[in-house]
Structure formats: C-alpha cells, structure tokens
C-alpha cells in the first residue's frame, strides 16, 4: 500500500501523530477566541451557534457523499472486472483479478479524507464553543472502551458525569 504521509526531514515524530495534531488544532481554535472578524474560526466561535452547528451537519453529509463516491468507483471497477471475466473465461481469471482500481478511486479516497478533516475541525470548534476540553472528550471515548482496549493511564470520566445515550 502506498504511504501517503511523510515526516519533514530532520524532525522527530511525536509519540502520537493524531494526538499531537488534535492538540495543536484545538489550541489554535481556542486562541482564535480573541482573533477578530478576519478569522473564520473566530466567526464560528462568536456568531449564532447555528452557523457552526449547520457546518457540522453539512460537512458530515459531505463525508457520507464522499464515501458513496468511493463505493461507486469500487463497484464500477468490480463490474468492469466481472465483464472482463465473463468475456475471458475462467482460464484468464487470475489476470482479471489483478486489474487495478482506476485513479478516480484513489482520488475519491483522498476527497473522503479531506471531508473527514472538515468534520473534525468543525467538531473541535463545537467542543471549544461549549467548553469540552480534548481531555474530557478523550475521557468520553475511553469510558466506552473495554479494559483491554483502553490505553494505559487513559483519562476517565467520573461516574456522575457518565451519560449513556441520554
Ligand atoms: N482546519 C481548519 C479548517 N478546515 C476547514 N476550514 C474551513 O472550513 C470552511 C469549509 O467551507 P466549505 O463548506 O466551503 O468547504 P470547502 O472545504 O471549501 O469545500 P467543500 O467541503 O464544500 O467540498 C472553509 O472556509 C475552510 O477554510 C478550516 N479553517 C481553519 N482551520 C484551522 O484553523 C486555523 C485558524 O483558521 P482561521 O480562523 O481562519 O484563522 C487554520 O490555520 C487551520 O489550522
């Protein structure tokens, strides 16, 4: 599988890439509380809450559409493969199975990743807006894990703050 990521030369990777990234982004978002109208984040933090809540819904919908696009490229590739298989007969099956997914499939996956990042950014703005820290959010996820899944030293919610789908 192609590695789509890299670490800039001469820089050491943090222990957790996604942890470091979310912390940096959450800190940037929090700092934008004082940034003024020129900042998109500031506007989402200070305008009517509907603006950012609508964005979360819109971007979530775009994730779903982007994923459907990935599915349709995969399906059409399989359909083309089956057409080839029918035309070629079983003797050619091994060759047929090595048919590559089209470039559009990879582009659709890249687009899905892009839309997913839009959702996470807007979700972090919502968390900031309503005073939910990243540690508290982590505790919510950690509380749902089994003991085997939970990382050592993972932050947890006190029992009185646990909400089970209510
Ligand atoms: N990570 C983001 C980020 N992700 C998305 N967006 C904005 O969210 C908006 C999404 O708008 P659209 O719906 O038009 O989406 P699109 O991505 O243009 O296209 P589609 O999703 O419709 O395909 C765009 O204005 C993006 O710029 C972001 N804006 C800011 N950040 C981070 O927040 C920091 C502070 O940003 P400012 O507040 O603008 O200074 C930036 O330096 C970034 O690190």
UniProtKB/TrEMBL annotation:
Pathway: Amino-acid biosynthesis; L-histidine biosynthesis; L-histidine from 5-phospho-alpha-D-ribose 1-diphosphate: step 2/9. It is an enzyme of class 3 (hydrolase). Keywords: Amino-acid biosynthesis, ATP-binding, Histidine biosynthesis, Hydrolase, Nucleotide-binding. SUPFAM superfamilies: all-alpha NTP pyrophosphatases (SSF101386). It holds the Pfam family PRA-PH. Its EC number is 3.6.1.31. The keyword Transmembrane does not apply. It comes from the Bacteria. It catalyses: 1-(5-phospho-beta-D-ribosyl)-ATP + H2O = 1-(5-phospho-beta-D-ribosyl)-5'-AMP + diphosphate + H(+). This is Phosphoribosyl-ATP pyrophosphatase.
């Amino acid at each position: 599988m192609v590695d789509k990521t890299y670490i800039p030369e001469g820089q050491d990777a943090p222990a957790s890439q996604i942890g470091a990234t979310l912390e940096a982004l959450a800190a940037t978002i929090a700092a934008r509380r004082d940034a003024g109208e020129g900042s998109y984040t500031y506007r989402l933090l200070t305008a009517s809450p509907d603006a950012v809540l609508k964005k979360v819904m819109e971007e979530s919908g775009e994730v779903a559409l982007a994923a459907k696009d990935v599915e349709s490229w995969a399906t059409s590739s399989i359909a083309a493969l089956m057409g080839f298989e029918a035309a070629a007969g079983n003797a050619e099956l091994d060759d047929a199975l090595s048919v590559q997914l089209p470039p559009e499939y990879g582009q659709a996956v890249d687009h899905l990743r892009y839309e997913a990042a839009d959702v996470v950014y807007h979700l972090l703005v919502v968390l900031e807006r309503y005073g939910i820290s990243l540690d508290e959010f982590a505790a919510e996820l950690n509380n749902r894990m089994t003991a085997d899944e939970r990382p050592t030293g993972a932050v947890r919610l006190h029992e009185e703050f646990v909400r089970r789908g209510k």
